[in-house]
Structures are given as structure tokens and as C-alpha cells.
Amino acid sequence: MIRSELVAIVAEQNPHLTVRDVEAIVTTIFDEIADALAEGRRVELRGFGAFSTRAREARTGRNPRTGTAVEVDAKRVPYFKPGKELREKLNA
User: Where are the domains of the chain?
Assistant: First the structure.
């Protein structure tokens, strides 16, 4: 599912909201999740899952074209852990 599909489904289920309002709501939710992760906080949506970040250490990688060694800096990457209800729904 892509963002426009999500907006269309939410707008269809909530006819009292305009598509523009739904787009603003979806964008705000995604922006708030991204901002919280950028600040190093954890975001938990009960029944769905939790978003957090994980640290990746610096390492030496390889350029796939040339095979030469390339230094890869340390970084933080997003991580998602599904909630119990989501796991149960997937495995039902």
C-alpha cells in the first residue's frame, strides 16, 4: 500500500472529511513519527507495533561495481517491531 491508497481508503471510510483533510492528517502522523525517531524517541501504536532506531557501527564495505573497499560511517536506522495483535492477525 502506498500513501495515496491509504489516503483514499481513509477518505472513503470517513465521508465527512475531504480528501485534502485526510492527506493533511496522514502527512502529520508520518511527520510526527519521523520527528520523534529523529530525536531518538520511540513511537508505540498499541496493537500495531513500535518504531524505534538502532545504531549501526562504522564498517568497511565493498563497492559492488569495482570491488574496492569503502568506509561506511556509523549511523542510526529505523526499526519496527510488530505488536501482538498485528502478529496474530498475520498468522491467523
Answer: 3-87
